[in-house]
Amino acid sequence: MKKLALLTLASLQLCAAEAKVGIVNFVSCVTESKIGKQEQSSMDEMRKQIMTLMEDKEKQLKEVTEQLQDKDYLDGLSPEGEQELKGKWAQLSEEMNRYNQQYYQFMQQGQGRMIQTVVGGINSAAEKLASTKGYSMIINKEACFFYDPKLDITAEVIKEMDKSFDDAEKKQSAEKK
């Protein structure tokens, strides 16, 4: 049994010695690559639009709430006017809840899409680097408890991702003409 364990250990060490491994920092790929920046910018733009709508509804809701709390204002309204104001408050509250739900749903979908897009870019870049530079394995930094910093190829992956991004942009530009 000990001989088998030693033989297995020796073969793993031999394979590891022959394997060329690269480590990639996923977070850096998101924050530093052109595709990651584009996805973040797109999410930020949509978030701003939704937040503007939410702030407008919140302002309207606050105004109606203040009117409902103002006894002098309520005394000046007819019973129908008061009911209308309460109905408006209920409608605005419902809209705010709907916007909140849409916001959280959008954020989850947007983050999922961003991760999927960046992972696709990393996969393509990793495959190209593996074929051109002879890597046997390229893994995410998060999968390692420890690695030698010399194995980090994040900058190379980002460079390849940016090259693919630029090529895709040129292709889209040419198709539009």
Overview of the structural elements:
With 177 residues, this protein is mostly helical. The longest helix is centred in the middle third of the chain and has 55 residues. The protein has a two-stranded parallel sheet. The protein is built from 6 helices and 2 strands, in the order αβααααβα.
Strand order of the largest sheet: 1-2
Into which percent range does the helicity of residues fall? over 70%
Number of domains: 1
Total E-strand runs? 2
SS-based class: mainly alpha
The number of distinct helices, counting runs of at least 4 residues, comes to 6
SSE inventory with pairings:
Layout: H1 2-18, E1 21-24, H2 26-32, H3 34-69, H4 71-75, H5 79-133, E2 137-140, H6 154-176
Parallel strand pairs: 1-2
Helix pairs in contact: 2-3, 2-6, 3-5, 5-6
List keywords for this structure.
177 residues, 81% helix, 6 helices, single chain, two-stranded parallel ribbon, mainly alpha
Nutshell version of this structure?
This protein is mainly α and 177 residues long.
